[in-house]
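User: Please go through the entry that follows and flag anything odd:
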Amino acid sequence: GGGGSMMSMDAIVNAGFTIANFTDTSGNPSASKVYRASRIILAQPDLVGYFGSGSGVASQEQYWSAYGLAKAFWELDLDIPAVIRLGGNTEDRAVDILRRMSGLLRAPVEGYRKTDAPAMIAERFAELVAGAGGTKWKPRAPRAPKFVKDPSATMLPVKSGRVWIDTAKWSRNGGIRRAVETHSGGLIVDRPAKAGPMATLPSEEFANKDSELLACDVECRLAGVEGFYLELDIPGLGELMGVGRDRYGN
């Protein structure tokens, strides 16, 4: 929101930084919205860090934002420090998601709660940037597992994207099945007649579960389970970065 954002911007400027842009994802954003916003922000070169901070009193589930950030940071192999203040509902869960994802990245990602003042986390951000030794962000194409777009993989359409599942790793008696069924909240299960993944909802309903499936993507990765990936379109971003368009229009 406006007041919290202004306070946070004052804090980061007072810590000696120039703001590269201002992006507001408030209003109970979905995980996919935060993911796309993060990807767009990280299309800019020469950033020295990623700083996010809000009012701390938002009546929205903060873990959705954490999942969106975590997915974007992993896909882009973040190598500049990030400090994120996610105060509000389920803030402990949100901070834990960022903490766990930080272990898979080349730069630290730290999450903070509503009781952590913007001035304090801005100072911490300055410490992390100083410790990075002058590293500046270089925009890059997102990394994705090798099975994505492979003809043998299972593809399930979602809103402006696709779920990809490595069918070779799906097994009725093991493999990635149990992890996907658990982390998707039962949105994807084993087919009754023949082993393989299937959606449990009609296609239109399933297509609107992009945030839940994004959470599944992140949780599988954090658990070391390879074989599930959510691909989300960001039209025009590839052209903006000078890498052209893929067959899905990104």
Q: What stands out?
A: Residues 154-240 form one domain. The CA atoms of residues 92 and 148 lie 32 Å apart.
